[in-house]
Amino acid sequence: MTVGFIVFSLNGAACAITCLCILMYRRKGARFRLGASVVAYVLALATGAVAIRTLYGTYGDPVDPSELLINGVLCVSMLASRGNVTVLISPRKMFGEAKFWT
Fold first, then answer.
1. Residue 12 and residue 92: Cα distance in Å, rounded?
2. Pick from 2, 21, 23: nearest CA to 13
3. pTM of the predicted model, to two decimals?
4. DSSP state, 100?
5. Nearest of 75, 71, 68, 72 to residue 21 by alpha carbon
6. b (16+ CB within 10 A) / e for 42-66
7. SS3 label, residue 54
8. What is the pLDDT of residue 88?
């Protein structure tokens, strides 16, 4: 088991967890936003494709550690927001009604 294989596997796992978090999100009465839905769809599609390609071994073998870092941060963010993509793309949701964002 090499470091490259561990990075490769962790990247696939981070993408799979991110995809599942987005797919399992429930609005529970929140307003429907088309833009957020499109972003969530594209993110779920991209991270799901990476996870499936990793599982079948067709994803690029030398995964860059920076790619793992990006996917890991995205995975942790999705876990923290319980799959709510709006928290990531809306500064008001993330930081409240801050004056410097307006």
1. 31
2. 21
3. 0.81
4. G
5. 75
6. ebbeebbebbeebeeeebeeebeee
7. helix
8. 80
DSSP assigned state of 101: G
Q: What tokens were used for 3?
A: 């470091």
In whole angstroms, what separates CA 7 from the centre of its chain?
A: 17
- Calculate the CA 34 to chain-centre distance: 18
Handedness of CA 31, 36, 42, 44 (dihedral sign): negative
Retrieve residue 48's tokens.
């799901």
3-state secondary structure at position 76: helix
Return the DSSP state at 6: H
N-terminal to C-terminal alpha carbon distance within the chain: 50
Average confidence score pLDDT of the chain: 83
